[in-house]
């Protein structure tokens, strides 16, 4: 009961609050509150100057505008354009403050703004590479002027010859605001799931993925991004068609198992995947420094036997439960590195670099978001770097982790049939299978996480419902220097 209510809670959170945060952040309206507009009618310059001066005070971020009608302190330089409904801009000796509304301010350091100039002298419009010499920017550089224009902030910099003019669109500044960050770190919401996903698992059709235009491919990749897996129905049950499907995302990552692989239970490679044994939920390639990002597989045939159901478990869902119910376990899983190996073949001996391995849970160093689950207890090497004082708590932690992974609430069992391929995010969703008899022919491929993210970003530029992520029709041939991905 606890678990299913936790799931509902998580789904509600990820579908409502996250998306509303995103749309709020991207909104292009910068209307002011009524009280300030009333004050503006009396004395617009003073109100705005006082509010923007307040924004340049050290942290914490001001929650209320300063409605004082006293002029700003004389040492403060205020350069701004007052035009209704434009963000307010002002500066002190270190930073420019941009007021989106009376309560939301972003501060940008002068050095940061100069370093991020996107004019064609400072940033190559085609290659999208920095041309400005960052190390020639004086550390104490100050603008000659900052001005709020209709489309963005104009900053004039002193220069030996003519002043250098930089321009930053409002949407770009808002997207890249770091003091404070205004954007949700994750542009695409994740939907965490448990066993109930069986009621409507994400599925797309082979034909829509394979059509040239791309919206079907975008839908497929979005599903993978949101759910960590997606079925593709109507795939011709051949290795050739499955390989073409894989290549819609990017080039296939070759490993010791081959490029596009096909296997039966013949132990042709020294790995339990090539047997009829049951396999518990695991991620692949824990023995790589960079485990494969996506894994696609397709059951081509199963004759003279039964069994071999596929198991999928959302590692992010299980991690969220562990974090809520057993924070100390979550902490250990996030900190203790686990070594691993692939050593069943005489000709290869894989271990990650460094060989002490990586923690089960890896996080974004900037945002703290969970990024990767790496778990295969069968491939684990000797725990020779485990601190003596941690041995018992570490075994308790993986026992708890295992019991949450194998809970009926977490496990999604599905019997694959020829014609339906499944693709999983190997950094998030664990997979396994039940034992089987007879002859099973499976084929599939690995695709790198970077290839997947790149394709998803390119398709978002074209098809995203969010206008800030889309490249406009006219400039479709060349990516904008203001792309939120740069
Ligand atoms: Zn420039």
Structure description:
This protein has 486 residues and is an alpha+beta fold. The chain contains twelve helices and 18 strands. It has helices spanning 2-26, 34-42, 44-55, 110-115, 170-175, 206-210, 215-227, 239-247, 315-325, 327-335, 391-405, 449-463; strands spanning 88-91, 95-99, 105-109, 145-148, 152-157, 164-169, 203-205, 229-233, 261-263, 279-282, 294-303, 310-314, 361-363, 370-373, 412-414, 421-425, 429-433, 439-447. Helix 7 crosses helix 12 (449-463). It is elongated, with a radius of gyration of 27 Å. The two termini are 44 Å apart. Zinc ion (ZN) is lined by residues 117, 119, 121-122, 164, 166.
The stretches of 5 or more residues where confidence is low (pLDDT under 50) are 1-47, 60-82
Arrangement of strands in the largest sheet: 7-8-16-11-18-9
Structural class, by secondary structure, is alpha+beta
Distance between the termini: 44 Å
Mean pLDDT: 84
Q: Give the fraction of residues assigned to helices.
A: 25-40%
Number of helices: 12
Q: Hetero groups bound?
A: zinc ion
Q: Count the strands?
A: 18
Order of helices and strands: HHHEEEHEEEHEHHEHEEEEHHEEHEEEEH
* Largest β sheet strand count, sense and barrel closure: 6 strands, mixed
Throw out a few tags for this protein.
486 residues, alpha+beta, 6-stranded mixed beta sheet, 4-stranded antiparallel beta sheet, 12 helices, disordered N terminus, binds zinc ion, AlphaKG_dependent_hydroxylases
């Amino acid at each position: 009961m606890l678990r299913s209510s936790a799931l509902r809670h998580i789904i509600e959170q990820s579908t409502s609050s996250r998306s509303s945060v995103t749309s709020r952040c991207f909104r292009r309206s910068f209307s002011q509150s009524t009280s300030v507009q009333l004050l503006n009618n009396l004395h617009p310059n003073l109100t705005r100057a006082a509010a923007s001066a307040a924004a340049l005070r050290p942290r914490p971020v001001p929650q209320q505008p300063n409605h004082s009608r006293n002029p700003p302190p004389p040492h403060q330089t205020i350069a701004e354009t007052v035009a209704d409904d434009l963000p307010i801009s002002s500066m002190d000796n270190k930073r420019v403050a941009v007021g989106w509304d009376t309560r939301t301010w972003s501060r940008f350091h002068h050095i940061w703004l100069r370093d991020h100039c996107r004019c064609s002298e400072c940033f190559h419009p085609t290659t999208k590479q920095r041309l400005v010499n960052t190390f020639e920017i004086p550390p104490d550089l100050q603008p000659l002027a900052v001005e709020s224009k209709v489309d963005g902030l104009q900053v004039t910099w002193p220069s030996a010859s003519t002043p250098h003019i930089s321009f930053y669109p409002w949407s770009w500044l808002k997207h890249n605001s770091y003091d404070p960050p205004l954007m949700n770190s994750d542009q695409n919401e994740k939907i965490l799931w448990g066993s109930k996903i069986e009621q409507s698992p994400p599925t797309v059709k082979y034909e829509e993925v394979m059509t040239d235009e791309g919206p079907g491919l975008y839908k497929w990749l979005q599903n993978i991004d949101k759910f960590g897996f997606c079925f593709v129905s109507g795939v011709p049950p051949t290795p050739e068609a499955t390989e073409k499907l894989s290549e819609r995302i990017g080039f296939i990552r070759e490993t010791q198992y081959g490029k596009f692989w096909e296997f039966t239970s013949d132990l042709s490679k020294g790995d339990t995947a090539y047997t009829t044994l049951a396999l518990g939920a695991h991620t692949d390639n824990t023995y790589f420094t960079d485990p494969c990002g996506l894994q696609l597989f397709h059951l081509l045939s199963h004759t003279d036997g039964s069994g071999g159901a596929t198991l999928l478990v959302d590692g992010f869902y299980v991690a969220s439960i562990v974090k809520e119910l057993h924070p100390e376990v979550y902490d250990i899983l996030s900190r203790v590195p686990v070594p691993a190996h692939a050593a069943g073949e005489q000709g290869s001996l894989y271990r990650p670099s460094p060989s002490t391995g990586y923690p089960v849970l890896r996080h974004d160093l900037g945002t703290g978001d969970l990024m990767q689950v790496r778990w295969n207890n069968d491939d684990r090497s000797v725990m020779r770097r485990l601190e003596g004082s941690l041995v018992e708590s570490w075994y308790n932690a993986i026992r708890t982790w295992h019991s949450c992974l194998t809970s009926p609430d977490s496990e999604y069992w599905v019997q694959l049939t020829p014609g339906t391929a499944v693709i999983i995010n190997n950094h998030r969703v664990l997979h396994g299978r039940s034992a089987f008899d007879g002859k099973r022919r499976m084929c599939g491929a690995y695709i790198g996480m970077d290839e997947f993210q790149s394709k998803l970003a390119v398709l978002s530029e074209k098809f995203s419902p969010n206008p800030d992520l889309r490249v406009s029709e006219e400039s479709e041939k060349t990516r904008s220097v203001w792309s939120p991905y740069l």
